[in-house]
Design goal:
- The chain has about 280 residues and is an all-alpha fold.
- Helix content is about 75%, strand content about 0%.
- Helix 1 crosses helix 7, helix 6 packs parallel to helix 8 and helix 14 runs antiparallel to helix 15.
- The N terminus is likely disordered.
Length: about 280
């Protein structure tokens, strides 16, 4: 793995307080009522967004290259088009990594991965898109990144339908990238029904419970995680948020204080203190 690969994955870490850490919707409602409630809780805000045209984007970026790099890009592109093999597309991907255009790098790593058609390479490509999605603001580009990642992860699941980590990554794409939250929820539910102790799935469902105002269900999910992993700071942070949502601010503050101690980061602690001071 090159230094660019490492930087690519590390870029997925978010440091703002609300996103510092990266609901179970079952109940006694009938299916149609439950689905209606869930869809209202998670409207698809990105439904009408048109994804970035990557060919037009690439043409624009190529036009900005200096002569030496432009010649190199043309040569690598020509080789890739003629050979249509994974090595050639990886060479092109590495060129764009060096140019620090992670979108085009991921695009060509995906082309290489589809030619290799291995679980490892396809997961790598999907996770690259998921990583850059986490720090992209433009909705058109976010949607394109999510759709590319979804294609990669679906291909993984064709090879290995039981890859739980890939299912969680796929659910994240639907939730954070395309706005198809219920598709993501369905995947996560399936995971927790088979493995009620899955940490990642329970945390995401807990966060979604907070988002939809289902605080009691979020608390159940997040307390489950903490019963298994008492020092999971992400679960602790969002459990505090869930208790705040129920109106139990004393419990929320107690949990935020525990979270501060575990994270042990002065900037984080400062932001938590500012946040606590906003409580009425």
């Amino acid at each position: 793995m090159s230094k660019y690969h490492i930087a690519f994955i590390v870029s997925f870490i978010v440091i703002a307080i609300g996103l510092y850490f990266g609901g179970n919707f079952t109940g006694k409602k009938n299916k149609s009522t439950a689905q209606s409630t869930e869809n209202k809780a998670f409207p698809n805000a990105t439904k009408d967004i048109v994804a970035t045209d990557i060919q037009a984007y690439e043409k624009e970026i190529v036009a900005k290259l200096k002569t030496t790099q432009l010649d190199k890009e043309k040569k690598l592109t020509q080789i890739a088009k003629e050979n249509q093999n994974a090595v050639a597309f990886k060479d092109l991907a590495e060129f764009w990594e060096a140019e620090k255009d992670l979108n085009l790098a991921a695009y060509y790593y995906k082309k290489a991965a589809f030619l290799e058609n291995t679980e490892k390479s396809l997961n790598f490509a999907g996770n690259l898109f998921l990583a850059i999605l986490g720090r992209t603001e433009k909705p058109q580009m976010r949607k394109w990144q999510a759709l590319e990642a979804i294609e990669s992860f679906n291909k993984v699941l064709e090879l290995n339908p039981n890859n739980t980590d890939t299912k969680i990554a796929l659910a994240t794409c639907y939730i954070d990238g395309t706005g198809e939250t219920m598709n993501g929820v369905s995947l996560l539910r399936d995971i927790t029904q088979k493995d009620s102790n899955n940490i990642s799935a329970n945390i995401i469902l807990g966060k979604l419970g907070i988002q939809s105002g289902q605080f009691d269900k979020a608390i159940k999910r997040l307390e489950k995680v903490l019963s298994l992993r008492p020092e999971n700071t992400e679960a602790l942070y969002f459990l505090a948020e869930a208790y705040k949502g129920t109106g139990n601010k004393e419990k929320a503050i107690e949990l935020f204080e525990q979270c501060k101690k575990l994270v042990n980061n002065p900037d984080f602690s400062k932001e938590i203190d500012k946040y606590i001071n906003t409580f009425n």
